[in-house]
User: What shape does this take?
Amino acid sequence: MTLSDTSFLIVYVAVLVAIARPLGLFMMAVYEGRRTLLHPVIRPLEAGIYRVAGIDERREQGWRAYLFALLGFNLAGFLLLYFILRVQGSLPLNPENLPGMKPSLAFNAAVSFTTNTNWQSYGGETTASYFSQMVGFTFQNFVSAAVGMAVLVALIRGLSRHSANTVGNFWVDLTRGTLYILLPMSFIFALFLVSQGVIQNFDSYRSVTTVEGAEQVLAMGPAASQVAIKQLGTNGGGFFNANSAVPFENPTAWTNLLEMLAILIIPAGLVYMYGKMVGSTRHGWIVFGVMTTWLVIMAVVVNVAEQSGNSNLADAGVTQNAGDGQPGGNMEGKEVRFGIGQSTLWANATTLASNGSVNSMHDSYTPLGGLVPMVNMLTSEVIFGGVGSGMYGMVIYIILAVFIAGLMVGRTPEYLGKKIEAREMKAVMLGVLAFSLVLLTWTAVGAVNSFGTDTTNNLGPHGFSEIFYAFTSGAANNGSAFAGLGVNGTFYNVGIGVCMLVGRFLFIVPVMVIAGSMAAKKRVAPGPGTFPTDGLVFGGLLFGVIVIVGLLTFFPAISLGPVVEHFMLRDGLLS
Assistant: This one.
């Protein structure tokens, strides 16, 4: 890594650590219903919503009622968004007269934004009207993020309460997360983006003449408002097809830095909030340390891979030795304004969170460079991860680590003073196995059939990587793409849509089962066989469990793609 890249990474991590505690404390106060600085402005609006909707904020729900409310809300949101996308040609705010989407594409897009994935089988500026972008996509960017945070808060209550039969009220948690956290932060961030040059208008597209004399159409629209929430809510996707590689979405070095920070600041704050609310701040910091360690390691690996570049493209006047680096590094697919360092850090951050926005093209990365975003997603997005979903996914791995520790000492495992028993472990395994099963099944079908391979832009291991990455991104609710695969067909629209649904809701269901089961348990006093979860030994065990369970499952698939491609490239079999 260069000195500037190293310095930038240090600053980035330092800001995340500094923000985590105050933001976590603020979010804890919001979900506990305590007064905050925003109460004089937002509390009347919150109370008014409850009155109109007939919600009693003091009445809590059991885990089943909480889950059914969540699923019903998401189903209604999916159906509404699907309808908007199908008939957008007849709706207002459509200056380019874009037609409605075809059924498979509308299904894929509606599932994508409802599940907080924002996978795009379409080009935003060429397919979605302003109405679809604002009323459809941006609305889901807010509520899908709020749903993820609500699930985490319900799980925290289940872990921290003693012999309880309720885990909160879904409608209250949804409302508070949206009004007090997501809306104010997005409003401030959107104003900053506009000040830097991100467009926010309802103009028709503009035809301009380039320096070379060619005619070019520049897309317009309300971009800043969507960019703000898509980053803060770890939604990803973009108003523009090329996301933050487009100057209208990411015009300056400041927007590049703050958009990268926005991807991880709420997940980082939620980790601290988790530790405080379950009554073990040290445990929260250990989990935060595991996540940060992973972030730094992967940032270094992808940066070194791209700085080394392709040895087959080495300057003949400099070196001809196998394995020598490419002069200047691999700049293919990178934004020249930001270079390799900030491009690779973005690729790392966006695939650690379930964000998916890009400022460079992952398909153009070296095999090992492209492996890092893939590996990040294969952890089920638990390293910071999506807003809420990252931390509740991490709890799945924490319980698994505690269970393994219990097996090693021959005692019933305990976590936060509660015994981990058969019901919790069945729920854990459902979450872990559902992710790998749906991902590997659809990848296998796509890799061996012409309807899956005909739209790849590359043969061999890189073509396989494109297919594997697409279904990984869907199942992990990430939304990024290798971008070398044509996915706007029935097979990929339906297949990736199914992966997104399973990756979202077959993780939420077992998490809610665990929340309800743990809430009903009594606390037990720690004994001599209790494995402490607030020390470095536990941090090391947790890191190892993520590597072994989260990654070794997919090692054969990884070997067929980027690993084989790396060795073929090294031996001169690929150029």
